[in-house]
Amino acid sequence: MPAIVLIGAQWGDEGKGKATDILGSQVQWVVRYQGGNNAGHTVVLPDGQDFALHLIPSGILTPGVRNVIGNGVVVDPGVLLEELSSLEARGVDTTSLMISADAHLIMPYHVAIDKVTERFLGKAKIGTTGRGIGPAYQDKVSRVGVRVADVLDEKILHQKVEAALELKNQILVKVYNRRALDVDEVVDTVLAHGRRFVDRIADTRLLLNQALESGESVLLEGSQGTLLDVDHGTYPFVTSSNPTAGGAAVGSGIGPNKITRVIGILKAYTTRVGSGPFPTELLDAMGEHLRKAGGEVGVTTGRPRRCGWFDAVIGRYATRVNGITDFFLTKLDVLSGLERVPICVGYEIDGRRVDEMPMTQTDVHHAVPVYEEMPGWFEDLSPYRDFDELPTAARDYVHRIEELVKAPVSAIGVGPGRDQTITRDV
Ligand code: IMP
């Protein structure tokens, strides 16, 4: 088992935390390769304790696993330290966590700019998590970012912050009418934080490649989801990084040929937070039912998630752009108790039938789902552990999804607990 990628196949929040947690016990390393503390994983352990992780890889909860925040991640130092302390306070050993020297830091001005930009956009806002993710990636690409390694060199850090603030302060003060940030204050805060994680800074791409060479296995954990990818998602309503499988190689520093399995996480229905198109969204009582039954509230922001039926166009698209080898289907139990379960098999766009993801943003916004109705089931699925014993209608639903998304389902979630999972040989 060399390198495995785990990626959300919809708009994020598919239940990756549980999958990472399960796979974490089969691998030696778990790596985050993009995004930052905009992510939110809830993991429920066998003793019933649940953990919400935002930045740190879910493997931290599996003893013996080494965890890496890769070069593709943007790290808010204050959030990192808080998350470490809260894990430690609950008895979790965090010593294995290492942070790439090349990961970028989310600076206080990134968070400030994220929030004011969203306010400025008004109705056209992206609905970001307000954690400074976009502005941090903007600086990375503009080559004015501050990296984790910069906390090791105060002089360089000072120069970089000074250069960055020269422009940012103009924007904050003159465009947004906000307070200017003080260079020394920002540097001092970052250094004070940095001193507390300095021992974790490492050349993680070297470590990961050495691990792979010595036969160890690595799980690359994507955050957000395929449709939130800055290249392949519903742009501009996306995040600012590449959660899709290709981003795993870039964001961790391993060769793409080391990746032998790409697991897509698919929720048995669809959810999205933030703005942007969502063809199967249910704005009626059924949407509310899914939200309640599925506990669909954002882990990071506490925002209610928009809910809708399963969209096979998106699932198939995810298979294609990620090279998904197999799927974990989550939250199948949430669909129990429905007379009929619609699946979106294609779209109608301005009178045309379309079976694949539309090419233009305009078409995505005009897409009206074409549904196929599957018979529902009434049994509580949470006690089931064997696929063949599931109610026939639930099995048929899974089989139809496999046919439509063009990849097999190797695991099915029937409840939030780690053990409430059905695995299949595919
Ligand atoms: P940002 O990543 O904070 O810039 O937000 C950009 C978009 O991605 C917004 O629509 C967010 O709601 C969405 N987003 C970011 N992180 C997550 C996540 O972990 N799950 C689901 N949506 C997310």
UniProtKB/TrEMBL annotation:
GO terms for molecular function: adenylosuccinate synthase activity. Binds 1 Mg(2+) ion per subunit. Its EC number is 6.3.4.4. Keywords: Cytoplasm, GTP-binding, Ligase, Magnesium, Metal-binding, Nucleotide-binding, Purine biosynthesis. The active site is at D13, H41, K140. Mg(2+) binds at D13, G40. InterPro entries: Adenylosuccin_syn_GTP-bd, Adenylosuccin_syn_Lys_AS, Adenylosuccinate_synth_dom1, Adenylosuccinate_synth_dom2, Adenylosuccinate_synth_dom3, Adenylosuccinate_synthetase, P-loop_NTPase. It comes from the Bacteria. It catalyses: IMP + L-aspartate + GTP = N(6)-(1,2-dicarboxyethyl)-AMP + GDP + phosphate + 2 H(+). Its main location: cytoplasm. Pathway: Purine metabolism; AMP biosynthesis via de novo pathway; AMP from IMP: step 1/2. HAMAP family: Adenylosucc_synth. Plays an important role in the de novo pathway of purine nucleotide biosynthesis. Catalyzes the first committed step in the biosynthesis of AMP from IMP. This is Adenylosuccinate synthetase. It comes from Pseudonocardia humida. The lineage of its organism: Bacteria, Bacillati, Actinomycetota, Actinomycetes, Pseudonocardiales.
